[in-house]
């Protein structure tokens, strides 16, 4: 063990060591469920994990990072990572050891074993969120990562995944969030019926992103822009939902879209316009457009 | 050879046949350059290729699809694909043969050998485009596909790739375009200096999507919305570029962003706002937001 502030430490060089095998197992869902841990791989993800760890410590919240494994070369290349690891268990390891732990072909010299944060839905709702992204049976880890990242960029207050969605802590999903996983609360394994009822009770408008929706997103954006930019010109009779109100967006399965149950729970089914020949939007693209439309309406 | 309208044909079953090897080579750039051909894999991509082929035939333009390889099971499952292949060379093959041809693990029973379309930049510009997406050194095939798909959804008139960008005809890029590759002209291998000068001569506003840009995209959208929705409230003194004018968006390299040369060629450097903690936007996400902002301003 190596305390970044103190002294050099022995280099872990055996890719078949028990500790290495334990970490490698975290690529599988069962090991993650059993241990409550997952891996963040590569300098970008580990940096965001460490920053989140610091914020949590400052706020008296539970730890985010359990331990860090890094090659000496990586710490030399990105000294910030050693600084941020101060006070944490930081183990020096060879490239072979890291490769044996990692899901990626090249973990770029650093891996953090992180604690799965599992905030409760009621705690998230108690903080009166204005913008939520809900994934309903989103199955592709890359799409889930893109949506989480878009939610982060749009300033969403939290991301929620229903029970049948992909595990956001699987290595490919973690990677595709590009660090955003550590930026906002992510509630997983939620039962949809309970979620819909809780959102309703909290007075949050539920909008279903649905290619067949009867409400055009552009119309909602126009109405919102008029209220904001030219209140005098706004006839005040726009009946639809208001993008500036607290909103939860539902994003559905890649192939099937939202189920009838999910659509029925929504206050409105909103279509993102397709101007070209594309038949439908990728769910990540649709989520980006919807979340940014809400962010624009809410944040100015 | 099997004419879809006529008679059953022998099944290709030898994965080591010369014809199979020739097709498999199209996963590599040099074979694509030499033959001017590339592969579309899977029912979705092949369907879009075949539809594009029909449109081209109707318009007297060169062929899009050279030949199609499919399993009998696939044609039974999706009869539309056999119908659309009418008049083309359609060869029946085993799953093993298709697997040997394809870059994907599972090509889902159908592959089309397509002709690389290479429209000339001057022809694209002669059609007075209103919205162009330009990739400058975008290197990741998945990102290139996402941008092309977003451009299609936003109704862009063409997509342009500079010489140092990823080859949009590589199998992973083709796959990630989800058929959009066949929906709009894609000009590849363009020299940036020549492009900038041609866009300038054509009177097209060049906007650089740049996280450090001095112009906020939201301000451009607000000004445009005011002109459109409440002309009386628009003071008319908004000085920036107008999203409703013919526009070419520049999207840069994933790691480095746009180069100084590319930034200097732009009329304005526009930042997509980041509301949350995300440090920067994925280039695909940024492109989606920018292109949709233009589409909204131009199409209503």
UniProtKB/TrEMBL annotation, chains A, B:
Keyword Methyltransferase: yes
Single biological process term from Gene Ontology: methylation
CDD domains: SpoU-like_rRNA-MTase
Domain RNA 2-O ribose methyltransferase substrate binding: 39-120
Pfam families: MRM3-like_sub_bind, SpoU_methylase
Family: Belongs to the class IV-like SAM-binding methyltransferase superfamily. RNA methyltransferase TrmH family.
This protein's name: RNA methyltransferase
Lineage, uppermost ranks: Bacteria, Bacillati, Actinomycetota, Actinomycetes, Micrococcales
């Amino acid at each position: 063990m190596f305390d970044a502030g103190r002294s050099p430490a022995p280099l872990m060089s055996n890719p078949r060591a028990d500790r290495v095998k334990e970490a490698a197992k975290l690529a599988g869902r069962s090991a993650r469920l059993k241990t409550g841990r997952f891996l963040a791989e590569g300098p970008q993800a580990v940096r965001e994990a460490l920053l989140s760890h610091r914020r949590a410590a400052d706020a008296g919240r539970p730890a985010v990072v359990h331990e860090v494994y890094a090659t000496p070369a990586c710490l030399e290349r990105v000294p910030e990572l050693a600084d941020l690891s101060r006070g944490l268990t930081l183990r020096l390891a060879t490239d072979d050891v890291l490769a044996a732990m990692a899901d990626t072909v090249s973990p770029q010299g650093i891996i953090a074993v992180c604690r799965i944060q599992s905030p409760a839905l009621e705690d998230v709702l108690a903080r009166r969120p204005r913008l939520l992204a809900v994934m309903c049976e989103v199955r592709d880890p890359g799409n889930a990562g893109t949506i989480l990242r878009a939610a982060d960029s749009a300033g969403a207050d939290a991301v929620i995944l229903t029970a049948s969605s992909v595990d956001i802590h699987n290595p490919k999903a973690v990677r595709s969030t590009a660090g955003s996983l550590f930026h906002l609360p992510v509630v997983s394994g939620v039962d949809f019926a309970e979620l819909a009822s809780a959102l309703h009770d909290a007075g949050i408008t539920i909008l279903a992103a649905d290619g067949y929706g009867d409400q055009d997103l552009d119309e909602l954006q126009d109405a919102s822009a008029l209220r904001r930019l030219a209140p005098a010109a706004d006839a005040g009779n726009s009946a639809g939902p208001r993008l500036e109100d607290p909103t939860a967006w539902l994003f559905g399965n890649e192939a099937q879209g939202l189920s009838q149950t999910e659509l029925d729970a929504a206050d409105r089914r909103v279509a993102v316009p397709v101007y070209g020949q594309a038949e439908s939007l990728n769910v990540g693209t649709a989520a980006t457009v919807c979340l940014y439309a809400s962010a624009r309406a809410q944040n100015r």
